[in-house]
Amino acid sequence: MNKLKAVFFCLLSVLVLFSSTNLCFADEVDDLLDKCEIAPDPKPSAMVYDYELSPETLMPGDVGVLTITLKNMQDKPIEKDVDIKEEIMGNYTTVEETTEKGIEKDEEIDMHTIEEKVEPVKRTIDIDTETRFTMDAYIKDAYIVENEFKVYNRYISAGVIGPGEKVDFAFKIKAPAEDGIYTLKFIADIEDMEGKSSKGIRYFIPVIVSGTLNLLSLPLEVSQNEVRLEVINEGLSDVDSVYVVVSKASGVEFAREETYIGRIQSGESAIAIFNVINIKADGEGDSANAIFKAAYKNGVNKHESNQVCVRIPCLHRSGNGNGEEESLLEKQSEISIPALSSKSTPALKSMEKGLGAAVAFAGLLVPGILYLFLRKRKEKGEGEGEDRR
């Protein structure tokens, strides 16, 4: 029992010693650390590292994705050497223990006495070390200001960017209906990990809205066998999945109603060929017609080009029965010469009747003139004979 009491008193004295010493010097050490700025208070440094628009160039009314990449520009931990040496005055508490022999209940025991003394003491603080720390950037809010472009999403409490790390923010946007060069304003509000506001981001991104795909209004070639059309990409970006289709046909039948071209790069063109297999024009003076257009994609956006109407020459038999095939131009030529036409309009028929009467009159007139000429010559010859006699 006596031994347990002795151990208890020893532990109590040790606790009193250490607690009193810490209370004396804890505040002074904290003050020193603040004065020497072991851990300064820098602000997180985040900025726009890169951005990408898909597709690269938007056409009027297109929907695209603008991806903005932010990076924490602190690429490595901040290091700071700390060298502190200063004398500090404080109260130093000591505990003394004395042991005396005593008698309790007719038994001899050890009597322990603890005495606490407080004395002012000068102590020297000597700290020589190195500290390292990092600054994480907390993205509180990230968005694009909506003006000419429609913006479908924004980010709130987007997360934390560690030193040297990157994070992507994808925004769905829709281009206006008119061509032009537009500027999108990106804003990001940043805080440190203690919730203190830091330097935010204000960044302007130029976006071009332009371009379309066109069919030339004048076909490269039109014949009774095929039609050739040229497709030109006048935009600043490539287009994909290009088809040229027959949207409407009258009196003509093609081997296929669409021709696949594929990808056309910016500023380049491609040729679409349609083979004619049958022409079914009703009248001899009629021609077959077909309307063509191009369908294509810019990213996920589907578009159609201008429409082009093409007249296709028809085939028919000539009236002389030789079965010769003639083109539309030849038919137009023979219409301009009525005498060579196998069929005539009422006006032409009246002209033919007048021409026949003239020929008949000429047939009667020529023999009469010839008869008078021969008779006059004969009479002249007989008169000369009589004079000789």
Write the layout of secondary structure elements.
Layout: H1 2-36, E1 46-54, E2 63-72, E3 78-104, E4 107-133, E5 137-144, E6 150-151, E7 155-161, E8 166-174, E9 180-191, E10 201-209, E11 213-215, E12 221-222, E13 226-233, E14 239-250, E15 252-254, E16 258-264, E17 269-279, E18 288-298, E19 301-304, E20 308-312, H2 328-335, H3 346-388
Antiparallel strand pairs: 1-2, 2-8, 3-4, 5-7, 5-9, 6-8, 9-10, 11-13, 12-13, 13-17, 14-16, 14-18, 15-17, 18-19, 18-20
Task: Describe this protein's structure.
The protein is an alpha+beta fold. The chain has two domains: 207 residues, no CATH class; 100 residues, Sandwich (Immunoglobulin-like), CATH 2.60.40. It is built from three helices and 20 strands. The strands form five sheets. Strands 11, 12, 13, 15 and 17 form a five-stranded antiparallel beta sheet that branches. Strands 14, 16, 18, 19 and 20 form a five-stranded antiparallel beta sheet that branches. Strands 1-2-8-6 form a four-stranded antiparallel beta sheet, with no helix packed on it. Strand 3 and strand 4 form a beta hairpin. The longest helix is centred in the last third of the chain and has 43 residues. The radius of gyration is 54 Å and the shape is rod-shaped. About 13% of the residues have low confidence.
Short description:
With 389 residues, the chain is of the alpha+beta class.
Question: Tally the helices: what do you get?
Answer: 3
Helix content: 10-25%
Structural class: alpha+beta
Catalogue the unreliable spans: 14-26, 317-353
Q: How many domain modules?
A: 2
The rounded distance between the terminal residues' Cα atoms is: 207 Å
Strand share of the residues? over 45%
